[in-house]
Amino acid sequence: IAGITQAPTSQILAAGRRMTLRCTQDMRHNAMYWYRQDLGLGLRLIHYSNTAGTTGKGEVPDGYSVSRANTDDFPLTLASAVPSQTSVYFCASSEDTSGANVLTFGAGSRLTVL
Amino acid sequence: GQNIDQPTEMTATEGAIVQINCTYQTSGFNGLFWYQQHAGEAPTFLSYNVLDGLEEKGRFSSFLSRSKGYSYLLLKELQMKDSASYLCALEDSNYQLIWGAGTKLIIKP
Questions:
Q1: Which residue has the higher pLDDT, A1 or B7?
Q2: Which of A65, A71, B1, B107 has its CA 20 to 30 A from that of A26?
Q3: Would you call B95 and A105 a contact, using CB atoms and an 8 Å cutoff?
């Protein structure tokens, strides 16, 4: 089934540890995104990539980094996790970045930082 | 600045009709999305409005008034499976999405 695969599904992590959330899509979409979702807040964009080889900062990029070595993969790394990064993380993709840009989301990764 | 408001929670009865409102303020507007998100799952696309008026898709319809900065999602013949959060998202003139916090819809038998 075509779509987006995220791993891990959930993780409990000690503060200060490094963590990489994996995201792979098989739809050959050009654009990919990482969002975090917190109770009472809208989805907030962390980083995005309009095409393989390029990345950009979203609304809340601090403490996170991404890479886009190829079309399919877009990992999100927390270099040194802090409790405020406890959240549900969604990876998403879209065909391109022009108007009417429908996003396809992965199932999410629930991260708890203690 | 840009801002999106939608009610935090709504309750409706199975078989009834419910309207979920979304108001927004923005300096640049390209279109407006509605997504559905069941608890513990990913958001899924419902509708996109770029012109004023009503777009109908089966039991779900979405309305947009650009002059009023207002949209609503209308759900008819409610079913228990419609219990979910409904997310309104504004697409600005740079094609960036600004998301509302979502409206949790509770359907009662």
A1: B7
A2: A65
A3: no
